[in-house]
Amino acid sequence: MPPSDEIRKLTWIVIPAYNEASVIGTVVEEVCSTYPNVVVVDDGSSDGTGIEAFRAGASLVTHAINLGQGAALKTGIHYVLQRDAKYIVTFDADGQHSIDDVDTMFDVMSTKGCDVVLGSRFCGTTENLPVMRRFVLWLAILFTRRSTGLNLTDTHNGLRLLSVEAAKRIGLQQNGMAHASELLEQIARHKISYSEAPVNIRYTDYSLQKGQKLSNSIGILLDLIVRRFVK
Amino acid sequence: MIIQPFLSILLLGVLFFVMIQHHRGRFLRPAVAIAVGVGIFFTWMPEFSNKVANYLGIGRGADLIFYIWIVLSMLAFASLYITFNKQERQITHLTRALALHQAQGKIAPEK
């Protein structure tokens, strides 16, 4: 059952974006059509991403310099916590997510009574997922399952639904892409109730070009290991 | 005997540079002073480095100096890494505070 208008009004969609001017307008318009509260965190883009997002109807928070997706997400969460948000959705800027999946995630949240719903492309569907990308994701799942003990099918999906209570307990420290693993570690550490929901990921040439490569994944892994010792 | 005065001047230069860094930690200056003192001593008395090396079971004094250099380099690297991380966190806090202060709410739709 789709969420009520009241819930939609209490939901904020947080979209971290870095140099996504060519797609961000379309993404924001699509999201705004069903969820009116959207904040785009322009993470120091040089291509006018922020202006495009603002014109399309999003609230805009701009980092003066590029800090990374984790830092942008944290800024966005800070922003919505200062407003009347009750639910927070994290959403990628490159157009690979579908806003309709958020309705499914709300359904899972109310059915399971959990505080966090994580999107899973492997419970749902993926379009044009390359073999190498599948391998990278498999490595990430393996590492995160091992380090957090969470039994998840997809550990690096940017589509998540959080209750405000859960968002307040999760304090991301990782500025870069390692925030995805860190978020799961905190869910495990704080014993926050969670569930997965099937989502559809559309891989396009554009999103594949912007996404994580194997070399980046090794860097993320090292970062996570080092930061475990150096706080 | 050309290298010994040259190395001594270089080491004293390092000592001078560290001593004028008033904002550095309280352990750095004594540590560098000791390292420079030992370095100058071994430069002028290389046979002592051989004796210390033999005592430690290393073999040659040159190898001992090389191992010490590796350890000191790793410590310097770790120190730089910690400093870099601290500064990165400070920059992140500053950037976030500025961004939230200058945030722009969405434009109300035209009626």
Largest sheet of chain A: 7 strands, mixed
In the predicted model, the low-confidence regions of chain B spanning at least 5 consecutive residues are none
What is the strand tally of chain A? Answer: 7
String of helices and strands of chain B: HHHH
The CATH architecture classification of chain A is Alpha-Beta Complex
Q: What number of structural domains do the residues of chain A give?
A: 1
Q: Layout of helices and strands, plus pairs?
A:
The complex is a heterodimer of chains A (231) and B (111).
Chain A: H1 5-9, E1 11-17, H2 21-32, E2 37-43, H3 49-55, E3 59-63, H4 69-81, E4 87-90, H5 100-112, E5 116-127, H6 131-148, E6 160-163, H7 164-169, H8 179-189, E7 194-202, H9 205-210, H10 214-229
Parallel strand pairs in A: 1-2, 1-4, 2-3, 5-7
Antiparallel strand pairs in A: 4-6, 5-6
Helix pairs in contact in A: 2-3, 6-8
Chain B: H1 3-19, H2 28-44, H3 46-56, H4 61-101
Helix pairs in contact in B: 1-2, 2-3, 3-4
Question: Could you characterize the architecture of this molecule?
Answer:
The complex is a heterodimer of chains A (231) and B (111). With 231 residues, chain A is an alpha/beta fold. Chain A has a single domain, classed as Spore Coat Polysaccharide Biosynthesis Protein SpsA, Chain A, CATH 3.90.550. Chain A has helices spanning 5-9, 21-32, 49-55, 69-81, 100-112, 131-148, 164-169, 179-189, 205-210, 214-229, and strands at residues 11-17, 37-43, 59-63, 87-90, 116-127, 160-163, 194-202. A seven-stranded mixed beta sheet of chain A has the order 3-2-1-4-6-5-7, sandwiched between helices. In chain A, helix 6 packs parallel to helix 8. Chain A is globular, with a radius of gyration of 16 Å. The model of chain A has no long low-confidence stretch (mean pLDDT 88). Chain B is mostly helical and 111 residues long. Chain B has a domain at 1-44. In chain B, 77% of the residues lie in helices and 0% in strands. Chain B contains four helices and no strands. Chain B has helices spanning 3-19, 28-44, 46-56, 61-101. In chain B, helix 1 packs antiparallel against helix 2 (28-44) and helix 2 (28-44) packs across helix 3. Chain B starts with a helix and ends in a 10-residue tail after the last helix. The mean pLDDT of chain B is 87. The A-B interface holds A 38, 41, 54, 57-65, 67, 71, 74-75, 78-79, 82, 173, 175, 226, 230 and B 81-82, 85, 88-89, 91-92, 95-96, 98-100, 102-107, 109.
